[in-house]
Design goal:
Order of helices and strands of chain A: EEEHEEE
Shape of chain A: globular
CATH architecture of one domain in chain A: 2-Layer Sandwich
Number of helices of chain A: 1
Oligomer: heterodimer
Largest sheet of chain B: 8 strands, mixed
Number of helices of chain B: 11
Number of strands of chain A: 6
Distance between the termini of chain B: 35 Å
Largest sheet of chain A: 4 strands, antiparallel
Radius of gyration of chain A: 14 Å
Shape of chain B: globular
Number of domains of chain B: 2
Bound molecules: flavin-adenine dinucleotide, zinc ion
Helix content of chain A: under 10%
């Protein structure tokens, strides 16, 4: 079972306590943006085999959104970090041990 | 290719079964093909088959990193139906279902198509309205379906509990000519027919790169070396994003795990397929007597072909309310497949930004039923260079243009 540590309340929460929120750090586009930019924002996804940055909500805990860096092939968790950033912290930008 | 028949079985019985030949050749790659198809799942093999059968293109290789049919084609719960809401979906799924009717004869391979009927239970008022609407849409599309009463549901499937505590059965969308087929046999039957047309099915050969010159595809790099081609088609389901990256474009696809499980075999107790979309579960009985159960997909990206336990738990908990008699059954096996989900829950059959490179993907949780129709449409697109009427609406550009084929409202569950 997937276990992530909530960066706010520090609880080690298993996935039944969490709600997945999809890819993180997707560049947001609003009215006036090109069709290409809007398509990328709404639909195109990295969907990598390997390190994936994603959004999660501690739904049955403190209720807050946070970020996780996780490997989609090994299911290994690289780390979690708060929601108020537009890119992952440097120390989480490479899978552990590689 | 030797013809399979009752006579052949009798003849072989008399000579100790020494005369059977391999169903398909073990091929090693040539230098160049007219068409290379990546992925020997049902969709890739059906595409190759119809390239040969409908267009006479037989200098074709189907390249598979594992064994043929070892992806989602050999992992699904084999439900075949065509009662979709949107016109483009109904057209391609009904074409597909009708091809299943004669597939065993066409391929001379028994795929055990069993049009036993599929019912989708309506367990909320919202679903009652939704399925009535689908039944009307199907009538206009020429797909035979009916909205039936709870009494009729009980007649067709006596083991159902109509007055479940949380979700009583209020009716169902019933498609009498929908059903199941043997998934492995579909892959094997197509592989045998393709091989007999002279095509190469190359297993244990992983595509690791896509080669191109001046924006035009020229071949692929593989674990068995470089192979050239005039046209390339990617048909790799959950791995589509990975292949697209090799060819330099991105897809509106996310890969997640979808699970299924089977029980110990029991005596025949259910001769239809029942789907309960509100509670995220569905069930049928295999010819061996096992109850075949499937549920919803996991919520996060994942390539592990395993899935989360709590999803299985939810599915089983819900199905026990609807089928109380299964509460004591032992479950024998559980497995997962990596499904390719698009934003509108409809597939992609499309040209790509790379000239000569085509893609077929996005079938997500429900593409087994679509194998023959999808192969038919994809072969037409590859042969002619542009999508024909069946595939036209399923192009990649629909996401940019906002022309979605929204089936997410029509089916709230994996299927
Ligand atoms: C548990 C489960 C239940 C399902 N139930 C149903 C159902 O009841 N009804 C229904 O209609 N559908 C169902 N589906 C969906 C259905 O199984 C799929 O939509 C369908 O099988 C997809 O077929 P495919 O040929 O596109 O992909 P696959 O069968 O997955 O084939 C893709 C192939 O590509 C190969 N490949 C990947 N990368 C590479 C590479 N780099 N080089 C070479 N080869 C590569 C893979 O090894 C694989 O064999 C279910 C799926 C699952 C997982
Ligand atoms: Zn928390």
């Amino acid at each position: 079972m997937l276990i992530l540590t909530c960066p706010y309340c520090g609880v080690r929460a298993d996935e039944t306590e969490l709600a997945p929120g999809g890819e993180a750090h997707v560049a947001r586009h609003g009215p006036g943006a090109s069709d290409e930019a809007f398509e990328a924002y709404l639909f195109l996804r990295a969907n990598p085999r390997g390190l994936h940055y994603e959004r999660w909500r501690h739904a049955h805990g403190c209720g807050k959104w946070f970020h996780a860096a996780r490997d989609t092939v090994t299911m290994g968790v690289v780390g979690t970090y708060p929601a108020q950033v537009t890119e992952p912290p440097a120390e989480l930008s490479r899978p552990r041990g590689s | 290719m030797k013809h399979y028949s009752a006579f052949a079985i009798a003849r072989e019985a008399l000579r100790g079964h020494t005369g059977w030949e391999r169903a398909w050749r073990a091929a090693s790659p040539k230098k160049h093909y007219d068409v290379i198809i990546v992925g020997a799942g049902g969709h890739g093999l059906a595409t190759a088959y119809y390239l040969g059968k409908n267009f006479g293109i037989t200098n074709v290789a189907v390249i598979e990193k594992g064994w043929l049919g070892g992806g989602n084609t050999g992992r699904n719960t084999t439900i075949i139906r065509s009662n979709y809401l949107q016109d483009p979906s109904a057209a391609i799924y009904e074409k597909s279902r009708s091809l299943y009717e004669t597939m065993s004869q066409d391929l001379n391979y028994n795929v055990m198509y069993s049009p036993r009927g599929v019912m989708m239970l309506a367990q909320t008022e919202h679903e009652v309205r939704g399925y009535r609407r689908t039944a009307h849409a199907n009538a206009l599309q020429g797909v035979e379906t009916q909205f039936i009463t709870p009494e009729r549901v009980k007649e067709l499937c006596p083991i159902i509990e109509l007055k479940g505590p949380r979700y009583p059965v209020l009716g169902a969308l019933w498609q009498p000519r929908a059903g199941t087929a043997r998934h492995d046999a579909v892959a094997w039957g197509y592989a045998r027919a393709c091989s007999a047309m002279g095509m190469d099915i190359i297993q244990k050969c992983e595509v690791t790169g896509v080669r191109s010159e001046n924006g035009r595809v020229t071949g692929v790099s593989t674990s068995k070396g470089e192979i050239g081609c005039d046209k390339l088609c990617m048909v790799v389901a959950g791995h589509s994003g990975h292949l697209a990256e090799m060819a330099g474009f991105r897809l509106p696809i996310e890969s997640v795990a979808l699970q299924a499980l089977v029980s110990e075999p029991i005596k025949p107790c259910m001769d239809v397929v029942v789907m309960a979309n509100t509670v995220h579960g569905y069930m049928s009985q295999s010819d061996k007597g096992e109850m075949v159960i499937g549920g919803g997909a996991d919520g996060y990206n994942n390539y592990t072909q395993r899935g989360s336990f709590h999803h299985i738990e939810e599915t089983v908990r819900a199905l026990i309310e609807t089928f109380p008699m299964i509460s004591r059954l032992k479950m024998l096996r559980q497995w997962g497949g990596i499904v390719d989900m698009t934003g509108d829950r409809s597939p992609i059959i499309s040209t790509t930004p790379l000239t000569g490179c085509f893609i077929n993907c996005g079938w997500g949780t429900g593409g087994f039923k679509a194998i023959p129709g999808s192969g038919w449409a994809t072969a037409e697109m590859i042969a002619k260079g542009t999508p024909g009427p069946l595939a036209a609406e399923f192009g990649l550009n629909r996401f940019r243009e906002g022309r979605f084929i929204d089936e997410s409202v029509a089916a709230g569950v994996a299927h």
